[in-house]
Prior knowledge:
Elements: H1 6-20, E1 27-31, E2 48-51, E3 55-59, E4 66-68, E5 80-83, E6 88-91, E7 98-103, E8 115-121, E9 144-147, E10 161-164, E11 168-172, E12 184-186, E13 198-201, E14 207-209, E15 216-221, E16 233-239, H2 255-266
Parallel strand pairs: 1-3, 2-8, 9-11, 10-16
Antiparallel strand pairs: 3-6, 4-5, 4-7, 7-8, 11-14, 12-13, 12-15, 15-16
Amino acid sequence: MTAPTPSFVTALLFLLSSISKTANAAEFIVDWKIPVGEGSELGFYDDMKAEVGDTAVFDWKFAHNVFRHPSGNCNESGAIPVGDVTGSSHTFTADDVGEVAFACDVGSHCELGQIVKFTVSAKAVATSAPTTAPVTKEVDAADLVVDWIIPLDGVGPLPARTAKVGETIRFDWDQTEGGEVHNVYVHPNGGCDKTGAIFLGDFSGPTHTFTADDVGEVVFACDVANHCLLGQLMTVTVSGDDTSGSDGSGGSLWTLPLLLVVATIFL
């Protein structure tokens, strides 16, 4: 098998280097050569700006190299080698904050204009909006509390419940930032039919207290998007409040004791 050529290896290393960079880092590709201006005048590189974590990559043809020049000009005192093959790169660190000069030290290339300066700044820190406490409201007491969610199977409906006149049902869901978006409606026609739907609330914790008009079945549903069709609905069977004092046979619970009292008086 033919061995990979040096240019192929360089390209592969450059590709791998690019893949490994963080998504937030920038990469500056410098066409590294003796710049040529208009006519026979010498050219020059414009100064560039970068942040810590960004990378400068130097691509060239012919014979060049790259050195960092602490002097900021063509003075080679303390020059730090970056590379002598095309694709040589330097990733800026916190130590580079300020001005960094790169130059070619082949012959008089630097004096002919092959020098570029980067002004490096600290990485900008993304600032988030001031954290504010989530909007809350006092949670009403309830006899029945429902975890108001789309069923995990996406089929539903949610389990049916029973209640009595006078009892209160409350619907709770995750209202924190990034949480769930729901609402609660009463569906008089049952199922997901929204005809005549009665709004209860769109903030976690809406309640409904059952009255005599609710005796029978009451259907609650979420009307956000297709949540109801995904099973976010519930049927509550409501019965009377059983406070009439009846013994269940049609007579008053007080009838027998009263008769005993009357009988005792007349005996």
